[in-house]
Every structure is written in structure tokens, then in C-alpha cells.
User: Which sequence fits this backbone?
């Protein structure tokens, strides 16, 4: 290996962090508060042969830096950090380990658990020429009240799509094809939420079983695009293919948000691999237990937790978010296990530095910001407590709506609160209804169809003895466990799918559809398919339920056109005519007393919506989660049917003035077509 003189490397500058190209060369800047020296290691283009090592000559505070004259994009490099090996004090420096740059835009190689850790097969970084920021590129700026989120996996969405070219299936380019975009537009989706696309590793225990981390929640490169989802067609790099995908979706009017995992990294616990952050400055990057700097504070359940209390760790996250917005073009982020990001010394803090940093950042302040509002630490459930302007995944909506429709313990009062954006959690804290992200199913858990097909999870393929995944799913198999050819069972499952989708898309809040639930997607009963990358998990487009797709599209169109429940909070107050903005009734038209609200034995409910969002007159929502037809009393006036989840659309011409007969397991929406009612 050639040893180059330190003079070959100029001092350079301490910003920005990472490798920055210029006409004169490449500047390298790396944070480490506790290292004694940082070496820059240069490799051939294939990353196989180490050509040179040289210490970074500059140090400004806690940033080591140097400028390599004449270097250019394409250069492959790694880092070695010299410092103490004192695990009990939190220091894990080992200069024999080649480390990835935390800010690398491209990672070279593929980590292999079976190979020994040598420089030749270690992961490395590649210098890239940064594309210009996309600040002047038009974006679809949807009002929050209009958003309909569609959560999808890049690969799973297109791998079995017959109208996506074979070479593009499972890729960024495949997601941007006409066939996929046409489906999103047919549904009326405004916002595509993608499972992680940051470069990630497969955990050792999965690799040993021949499995992969399909979901991707195991990041090794926060600035690097996952190359496994790139087609390479047209000679595009994964980064450029991703950018082209975003542009194509924007042109179609669809926003793109990314699921990001800043709560932990792929280095896992102390037995995990040293690949990047641990080797550069373990004590700064990771949270440790109070008084025990050698023990990770495992708030994520994945072995470690990044410490955003440290200014340089926060800087890395902020730089990363800005990069994906300005350079890669995305419109926002969903933060996995988000309470970790806001934890101070005393637990979760909605005034944490992370939230203030985003709020004042001119690039990020206007982005979609969605929190998964729980982690695995003490006091980890924080639904409703994030700052104003943040959206939050609302699992109380999921569980309450499932339980009410499928025979659980939910009362009418519980159901009504979930229908009204969980006002008990969001309104009292000064939050807007749209900040509740409502969902019935997501990537984690049963699909909508499986929720009505299985009461017992079927996760044996994951290799964990069926111990993984949720045990309490609030589902109902409709009388037969698993797949069935019983016509009555199938009809009931179909009816309940429509009722649950209708509840989701009529409710206040921001609805999120899990990709494929609108066409009957099944995961064969696996409610934790994080390591299943196969045809049983990918969306089966060839067997799609076209009638269910049409129904879902009609629901979204109705939501956009009428917005049955307004964007603001309801108070139940009457107007000058005596018409309340929102009034709740029993099926016979009487008001509900306290006992009726809390009684779980009755599953019928009426909402008279005097002040809908966009409809020109009052609406009536009738819900019948019982097993027989119920007659619903109508207030005075002529009412016209807009939607009945138990009927074919051809029968929606119904109108009447007295009662509406709503079949079992159904939801109906009617509008007053002549004069208002009290």
C-alpha cells in the first residue's frame, strides 16, 4: 500500500460534513469528539485494493478535515479512527476497522456476514458530484385537508404488476411507470408514503435463515439510496433513478414522503458490526444508560438508539433531511419510533432541540412531518403530544374502529371519538384534526383482508416460532379461520372491507391506505412480514378485486368533493335555525345519554352533520355494525342516499323522509336535499 505524504492533503475546511467536490478537488470533513486521529483511506474504483492512507490534517473543534487536491467524483474511500478502546467508558475505537462516512452519498460493496472483515470486503464510500438543489422545481403542494396517503413498499408494489415491464418490476423506475401512476390517480391518492429507501443491512440472524430485512428499518447509509431497488435501465445510478421517479410522480400530482429511521442504526447492540458511527465516536453518536457509558439505552428495541441531544448527531439528521428535500426532491418524512428523537434526560420532550431545529429550518418547515408516536422506552407512548403542525400515526383510530366493527369492546362513544379525529387526544392539546393520521391497516400488522380472514397470526415463516408480531389484532375471521370458499363468509368479509374503508375515508383526520388493501391484498396471515420478500407478500395485481378498487376510488372522490366532516373541531353548538354543527343520535333518533355512549352492546350510531366541510347542506351518517338490518330514523326533510356500503351503486337513487333501512355491517351517508332540520 502506498503511503502518501501528509502534504498531499491540504487542511481544507470543517464544513459541510462528508465529502464535497469542487473544481480543485474533494474536501473531507468528519465529526469525532473523542478520536485521537482520523485517517482517510483511498481505494481503487472497485473498492478492492487500498492505495493510500493519510491522516486528516485539520481539526476544528470536534471536526477532522482535509482537502485532497485533484480528486474528483468517483473516488472510493473509507475512514479509520484512532482512539481508546475502553468499552466500559463507551469508547470503541479500532483503527483496524474500515468505516463508512456517515454522510456518504453512495456506499460501495455489500456487507456479507460470512466473510471476514478485511479492508477488501468492507463497505466503503464513494464521492459523488452533488446535483444542484431542486428549489425551483414545481411540487404538488396539497392542502393538508385534501391529503390521502398511500403507504407502499417500492418493491412490493410493482413486483407482480403485469403492466410494469419485467426489467422495471420492484424498482424506482417501475414505481414511476404509467400503470402504477394510473392506479394512484384512479384512487385519488395525493401522497405516496414509501417504506425506507435509505441503504440498509440484513441482520445476521436473518441472513443465517436465508431471509432479508424486506421493510428496510436497519439503516447503514442515511444519505444513500438503497441500490436493491434500482433497475439500472438506461444507465442511471440508483440516486438518479430515484430522482427521476420523484419527478414523474410530481408531474402526476402525487407527493412523495419517506419513512426514515433515525432512532437506531444497523450497528445494533455491542455484539453488532462496527461499520460507521460506533467506530468514529460511539459515546457521542449513541445514547447510553445514566452512569453506565458502556451500556446502550435500547429505546428502539434494536440494540442502540441515536442520541439527538448531541449537536453533531442532530446536525447529521438535519443535513440528511435537507438533502432528501433539496437534492432528491421529496416532500416530507414519516419518522419511525419518533419519541426517541425527542427524548431528553427526563424522557420525551415536545420542546426538544430536534423539533425546534425543524420548525425554524426554511427548507423543512413546509414539509410533511409524520411521527410514529411511540417507542420502546419508558413513557414511550406519546400519541397527541407532538408539536403543532406534526401529523401522527393514530393507532387508537385503528384499534377503536376495528373493535367497533368486528365485535370488540369499543363503545359508541369510543367509535365517535375516533371518527372525529380522536378529539380526546388532539383537540385538548391544541392540535388540528388533520394531524391525526387515521389508518385501519399499515405495513405492520394484518392487511385489511387478512384482518377479516385470520384471528391467529401465521408468522412461522419468519423463523421465530410464531412469537413475533402482535397477538391482539381486534380482528374477526367472519366464521372461518383462513381462506374459505363459503359464499356467506366471503360476502361478509367483502362487506366489512367496504365498511372499514368507508369509515377511514369519511372520518376527520388524514386517511392512510395501506397499499393493496383497496384490491384485497393478503399476506397469508403473516402480521409481521418484515423479513418476507416473496410472492406471498408482494401485491398480487392479477387477482385484484376490481369492484373493491372502484369502491375505494368512489370513497376518495366523495371525500374530496364533500368532505363530510369539516377540517375544524365540532362543538355540538346550534346555529340560528337550531341546527347543530354535529349531533349524535341513536338509530331511533333519540339523543344518547351517558350510559348509551359507554354501552358496548349496541353497535348502531347516527351522526347528523349540520356543518360538513364542502357539502352544501346537512349530511347524515348512519352506522350499523350489528348482524341484522336496522331502521334508522331520519330528521325532518327529504333525504337522498349518497353511499351505502351494503348496496351496489346502482341502488343509490334512494330517497325518503322517514326511515332508512341499513343492512347489517353497513355504513350509509345521506344528504338533505330540501330544507335544513334541527
Assistant:
Amino acid at each position: 500500500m502506498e503511503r502518501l505524504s501528509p502534504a498531499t492533503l491540504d487542511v481544507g475546511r470543517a464544513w459541510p460534513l462528508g465529502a464535497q467536490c469542487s473544481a480543485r478537488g474533494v474536501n473531507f470533513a468528519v465529526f469525532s469528539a473523542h478520536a485521537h486521529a482520523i485517517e482517510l483511506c483511498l481505494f481503487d474504483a472497485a473498492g478492492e485494493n487500498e492505495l493510500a492512507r493519510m491522516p486528516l490534517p485539520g481539526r476544528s473543534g470536534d471536526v477532522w478535515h482535509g482537502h485532497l487536491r485533484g480528486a474528483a467524483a468517483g473516488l472510493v474511500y473509507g475512514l479509520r479512527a484512532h482512539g481508546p478502546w475502553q468499552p466500559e467508558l463507551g469508547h470503541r475505537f479500532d483503527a483496524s476497522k474500515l468505516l463508512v462516512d456517515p454522510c456518504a452519498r453512495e456506499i460501495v460493496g455489500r456487507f456479507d456476514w460470512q466473510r471476514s472483515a478485511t479492508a477488501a470486503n468492507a463497505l466503503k464510500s464513494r464521492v459523488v458530484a452533488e446535483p444542484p438543489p431542486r428549489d425551483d422545481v414545481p411540487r404538488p403542494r396539497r392542502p393538508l385537508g385534501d391529503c390521502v396517503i398511500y403507504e407502499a413498499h417500492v418493491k412490493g408494489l410493482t413486483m407482480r404488476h403485469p403492466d410494469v415491464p419485467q426489467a422495471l418490476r420492484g424498482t424506482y423506475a417501475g414505481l414511476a411507470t404509467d400503470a402504477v401512476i394510473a392506479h394512484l390517480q384512479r384512487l385519488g391518492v395525493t401522497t405516496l408514503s414509501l417504506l425506507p429507501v435509505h441503504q440498509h443491512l440484513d441482520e445476521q440472524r436473518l441472513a443465517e435463515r436465508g431471509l432479508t430485512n424486506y421493510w428496510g428499518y436497519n439503516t447503514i447509509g442515511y444519505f444513500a439510496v438503497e441500490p436493491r431497488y434500482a433497475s439500472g435501465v438506461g444507465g442511471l445510478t440508483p440516486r438518479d433513478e430515484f430522482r427521476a421517479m420523484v419527478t414523474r410522480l410530481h408531474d402526476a400530482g402525487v407527493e412523495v414522503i419517506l419513512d426514515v429511521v433515525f432512532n437506531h442504526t444497523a450497528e445494533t447492540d455491542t455484539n453488532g458490526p462496527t461499520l460507521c458511527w460506533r467506530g468514529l465516536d460511539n459515546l457521542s453518536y449513541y445514547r447510553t444508560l445514566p452512569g453506565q457509558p458502556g451500556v446502550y439505552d435500547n429505546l428502539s428495541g434494536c440494540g442502540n438508539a441515536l442520541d439527538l441531544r448531541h449537536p453533531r448527531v442532530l446536525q447529521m439528521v438535519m443535513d440528511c433531511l435537507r438533502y432528501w428535500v433539496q437534492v432528491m426532491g421529496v416532500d416530507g418524512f414519516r419518522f419511525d419510533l419518533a419519541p426517541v428523537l425527542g427524548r431528553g434526560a427526563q424522557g420525551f420532550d415536545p420542546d426538544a432541540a430536534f423539533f425546534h431545529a425543524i420548525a425554524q429550518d426554511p427548507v423543512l418547515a413546509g414539509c410533511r412531518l409524520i411521527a410514529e408516536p411511540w417507542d420502546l422506552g419508558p413513557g414511550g407512548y406519546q400519541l397527541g403530544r407532538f408539536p403543532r403542525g406534526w401529523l401522527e400515526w393514530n393507532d387508537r383510530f385503528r384499534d377503536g374502529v376495528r373493535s367497533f366493527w368486528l365485535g370488540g369492546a369499543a363503545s359508541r362513544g369510543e367509535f365517535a371519538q375516533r371518527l372525529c379525529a380522536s378529539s380526546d387526544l388532539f383537540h385538548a392539546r391544541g392540535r388540528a384534526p388533520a394531524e391525526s393520521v387515521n389508518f385501519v391497516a399499515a405495513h405492520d400488522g394484518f392487511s385489511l383482508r387478512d384482518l377479516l380472514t385470520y384471528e391467529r397470526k401465521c408468522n412461522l415463516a419468519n423463523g421465530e416460532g410464531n412469537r413475533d408480531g402482535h397477538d391482539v389484532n381486534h380482528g374477526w375471521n367472519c366464521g372461518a379461520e383462513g381462506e374459505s370458499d363459503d359464499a356467506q363468509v366471503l360476502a361478509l368479509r367483502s362487506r366489512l372491507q367496504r365498511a372499514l374503508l368507508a369509515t377511514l375515508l369519511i372520518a376527520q383526520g388524514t386517511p392512510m391506505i395501506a397499499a393493496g388493501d383497496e384490491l384485497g391484498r393478503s399476506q397469508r396471515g403473516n402480521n409481521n412480514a418484515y423479513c418476507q420478500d416473496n410472492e406471498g407478500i408482494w401485491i398480487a395485481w392479477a387477482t385484484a378485486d376490481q369492484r373493491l378498487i372502484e369502491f375505494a376510488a368512489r370513497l376518495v372522490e366523495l371525500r374530496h368533493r364533500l368532505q363530510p366532516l369539516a377540517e375544524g373541531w365540532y362543538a355540538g353548538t346550534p346555529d340560528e335555525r337550531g341546527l347543530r354543527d354535529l349531533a349524535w343520535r341513536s338509530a331511533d333518533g333519540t339523543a344518547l345519554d351517558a350510559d348509551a355512549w359507554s354501552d358496548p352492546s349496541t353497535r348502531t350510531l347516527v351522526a347528523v352533520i349540520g356543518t360538513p366541510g364542502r357539502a352544501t347542506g346537512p349530511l347524515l351518517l348512519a352506522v350499523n355494525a350489528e348482524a341484522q338490518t336496522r331502521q334508522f330514523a331520519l330528521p325532518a326533510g327529504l333525504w337522498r342516499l349518497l353511499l351505502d356500503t351494503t348496496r351496489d351503486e346502482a341502488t343509490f337513487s334512494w330517497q325518503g323522509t322517514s326511515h332508512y333501512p341499513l343492512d347489517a355491517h353497513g355504513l350509509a351517508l345521506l344528504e338533505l336535499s330540501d330544507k335544513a332540520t334541527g
Q: What stands out?
A: The longest strand covers residues 25-31. The mean pLDDT is 96. The CA atoms of residues 358 and 364 lie 6 Å apart. The chain is about 20% helix and 20% strand.
